[in-house]
Amino acid sequence: MSIDELFTGKKFGEHIYFICRELRGRIRGVKTYAICVDDEGEALFLSVFSGREYYKPWFEVFNVIKPKYFYNTQFEADLLQLFYNNLPPGGRVFIEYVRDVETRTQLDRGYPIVSTRLGFLMFKTGFTWFKDWYFAEGFMEGNPKLQGEKHLSKEQYFRDLNYWYANLTSFINEIKVFDEISLNALKYAEMALRIIREKLERQADQV
Question: 140 pLDDT exceeds 60?
Answer without folding.
Answer: no
